[in-house]
């Protein structure tokens, strides 16, 4: 048996490096964050071979005094933290003092740095963490850090890296997020000699997103601005028509630091629920400024995870902020008949500069993109082919389901004509008398032109044509009626003939204890019946049938995963399904008066722009676009 002994510092550094330096992107993140903490407002990131061969970070920050340069490469050496008490209010991106020592221990490194009051700079060269040379050098104010041959002395780590192209993509993603988190910093990113990204550092997040995601996405982002209890949430979220198939476009920051948070993810996605297609995720860049002592950033060496002192408050802030942003604009997709232009490659600087020239906002402080009317429709939108292809694709995907729906309710519709018509009319008018408008109608002076394909109603107002999907519109109306019923009506309970004992884990018992009042408001009657056992004596009566113990456990699980406030939150999908089943279908002709009633009802809804499953209820096309097709207007 080997005896216990202390490890050598060089070995300790190599082991510790694994926590901080996972791949080239980790190196870029740590070094750029150091530059930002040093007050730099101009940073250049250059890599070769995916960052495995070379990473070079140049900044115009404060630099490091010559007598502290060697100390900076020691483990846990930092200028950002002096005591444990300061950790609660830490505002810098770095504070652990591990990055430079970890990076230097697994690479060939060189740093040239100069402060404003020093006549010359200092150059230090390290090989595997060992200082080989330290000397004076000519330098500009700031710091240049060069790293070569990452993991050259730890081959077991190096073989787990991916190909240079893949590692380069991780670096690109990291630099993009750093730019989003700090639009006030001009960041230039060069990969194998090609300038991939260059932001102007003027503090306009929309312009940064234009460089990263393109004009189309940036022009359809909505401002988010919300504050509560000292928390301030700012940023941008895309309209629902701009969505993605995964969460890689969800960007959340705390005081400029990119983090991953299930609380925030759930809050944003719940606020967008019913506005996005199923399987789609929102696009956003949000930054939360937090009061001192409300967040713990010292959870993991990578600082990607944090803990909030009040997760429910953070959830409410994010949810309310996103809901407010989405409710303050008309979310009607506009379409065109132009063929989509082939995208230009984004890997060269000339493309980025051209984009910046063509998309300069009139007011750099205003988060909006405006162009001359003659250009706006061409460059603002994708073609109707793309938009309608998606619409028709969704219709085709739903066609079989709708056929089944029609068969299931065929008996209901196969009644004498007068009765059928009266029942449809009554269904469309139901619950409208007592409903006060939740929002100002998005159009008021309109005219119904007619119906096409027994499904879509054409409405004209001013110089715009709208097309309304009768099934999606009626589904949304029924959905909101049901939502209001379950949110406002008291939930009735049904006493069980025999109480049912439910055995809970320690964590589940704690959830029940902390949410007892909420569970009782849901209609449950429960009491403690042992160490980890509760007796359920009554259950809520929902959807014309009593809930069961499985439903009780579903709610307990939901309370563990996310913030819910009423019984409706646990039944959204069921309500959406009910609405879809009851709504008038496509190819089921409505009369003019029925269509008018449906449209008036749609205008009064809280969220009239999508059905509960995220399909659009209405799209628009301008007279300008139509006249271009008939050559009344020449491009």
Oligomer: single chain
Query: From the coordinates shown, what is the CATH architecture of the largest domain?
Result: 2-Layer Sandwich
For the termini, the CA-CA separation is 84 Å
What portion of residues is helical? 25-40%
Q: Total domains, how many?
A: 4
- Contiguous low-pLDDT stretches (5 residues minimum) are 79-87, 343-438
Number of strands: 25
Description of the molecule:
There is one protein chain. The chain has 635 residues and is of the alpha+beta class. It folds into four domains: 9-198, Heat Shock Protein 90; 204-380, Ribosomal Protein S5, domain 2; 384-485 and 583-629, 2-Layer Sandwich (formyl-coa transferase, domain 3); 491-578, MutL, C-terminal domain, regulatory subdomain (Ribosomal Protein S8, Chain: A, domain 1, 2-Layer Sandwich), CATH 3.30.1370. The strands form six sheets. It has an eight-stranded mixed sheet with strand order 5-4-3-6-2-1-7-8. Strands 9-10-15-12-13 form a five-stranded mixed sheet. A four-stranded antiparallel sheet has the order 18-19-20-25.
Short account of what is shown:
With 635 residues, the protein is an alpha+beta fold. The strands form six sheets. Strands 5-4-3-6-2-1-7-8 form an eight-stranded mixed beta sheet. Strands 9-10-15-12-13 form a five-stranded mixed beta sheet. The longest helix has 25 residues, at 384-408.
Provide keyphrases for this structure.
eight-stranded mixed sheet, alpha+beta, formyl-coa transferase, domain 3, Ribosomal Protein S5, domain 2, Heat Shock Protein 90, 635 residues, 4 domains
């Amino acid at each position: 048996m080997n005896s216990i002994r202390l490890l050598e510092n060089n070995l300790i550094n190599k082991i510790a490096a694994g926590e901080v330096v996972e791949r080239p992107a980790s190196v870029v993140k740590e070094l750029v964050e150091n530059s930002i903490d040093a007050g730099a407002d101009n940073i250049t990131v250059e890599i070769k071979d995916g960052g495995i061969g070379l990473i070079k970070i140049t900044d115009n920050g404060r630099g490091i005094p010559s007598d502290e340069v060697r100390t900076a490469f020691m483990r846990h050496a930092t200028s950002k933290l002096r005591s444990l008490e300061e950790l609660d209010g830490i505002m810098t991106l770095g504070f652990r003092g591990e990055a430079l020592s970890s990076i230097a221990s697994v690479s060939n490194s060189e740093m040239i740095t100069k402060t404003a009051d020093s006549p010359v700079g200092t150059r230090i060269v390290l090989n595997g963490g060992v200082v080989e040379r330290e000397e004076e050098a000519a330098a500009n104010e700031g710091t240049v850090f060069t790293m070569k041959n990452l993991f050259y002395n730890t081959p077991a780590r190096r073989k787990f890296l991916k190909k240079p192209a893949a590692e380069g993509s991780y670096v690109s993603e990291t630099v993009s997020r750093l730019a989003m988190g700090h639009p006030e910093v001009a960041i230039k990113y060069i990969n194998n000699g090609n300038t991939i990204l260059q932001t102007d550092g003027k503090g306009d997040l929309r312009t940064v997103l234009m460089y990263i995601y393109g004009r189309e996405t940036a022009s359809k982002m909505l401002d988010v601005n919300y504050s509560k209890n000292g928390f301030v949430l700012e940023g941008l979220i895309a309209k629902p028509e701009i969505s993605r198939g995964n969460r890689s476009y969800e960007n959340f920051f705390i005081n400029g630091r990119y983090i991953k948070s299930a609380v925030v993810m759930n809050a944003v996605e719940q606020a967008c629920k019913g506005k996005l297609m199923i399987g789609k995720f929102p696009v956003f860049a949000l930054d939360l400024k937090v009061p001192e002592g409300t967040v713990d950033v010292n959870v993991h060496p990578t600082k990607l995870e944090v803990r909030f002192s009040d997760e429910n408050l953070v959830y409410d802030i994010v949810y309310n902020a996103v809901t407010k942003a989405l409710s303050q604009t008309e979310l009607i997709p506009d379409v065109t008949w132009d063929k989509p232009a082939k995208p230009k490659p984004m890997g060269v600087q000339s493309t980025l500069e051209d984009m910046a020239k063509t998309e300069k906002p009139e007011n750099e402080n205003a988060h909006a993109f405006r162009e001359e009317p003659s250009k706006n429709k061409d460059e603002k939108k994708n073609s109707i082919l793309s938009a309608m292809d998606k619409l028709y694709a969704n219709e085709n995907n739903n066609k079989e389901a709708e056929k089944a729906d029609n068969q299931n309710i065929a008996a209901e519709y196969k009644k004498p004509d007068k009765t059928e018509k009266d029942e449809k009319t009554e269904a469309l008018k139901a619950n409208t008398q007592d409903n006060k408008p939740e929002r100002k109608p998005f159009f008021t002076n309109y005219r119904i032109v007619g119906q096409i394909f027994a499904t879509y109603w054409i409405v004209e107002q001013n110089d715009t044509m709208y097309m309304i999907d009768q099934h999606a519109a009626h589904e949304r109306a029924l959905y909101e009626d049901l939502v209001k019923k379950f949110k406002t009506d008291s939930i009735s309970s049904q006493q069980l003939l025999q109480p049912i004992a439910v055995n809970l884990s320690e964590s589940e018992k704690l959830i029940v204890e902390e949410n007892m009042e909420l569970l009782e408001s849901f209609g449950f009657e429960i009491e403690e019946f042992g160490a980890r056992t509760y007796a359920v004596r009554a259950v809520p009566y929902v959807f014309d049938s009593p809930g069961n113990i499985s439903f009780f456990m579903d709610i307990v699980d939901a309370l563990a995963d996310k913030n819910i406030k009423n019984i409706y939150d646990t039944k959204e999908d069921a309500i959406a399904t009910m609405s879809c089943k009851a709504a008038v279908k496509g190819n089921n002709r409505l009369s003019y008066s029925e269509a008018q009633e449906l449209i008036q009802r749609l205008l009064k809804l809280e969220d009239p722009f999508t059905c509960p499953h995220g399909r659009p209820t209405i799209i628009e096309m301008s007279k300008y676009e139509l006249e271009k097709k008939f050559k009344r207007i020449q491009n």
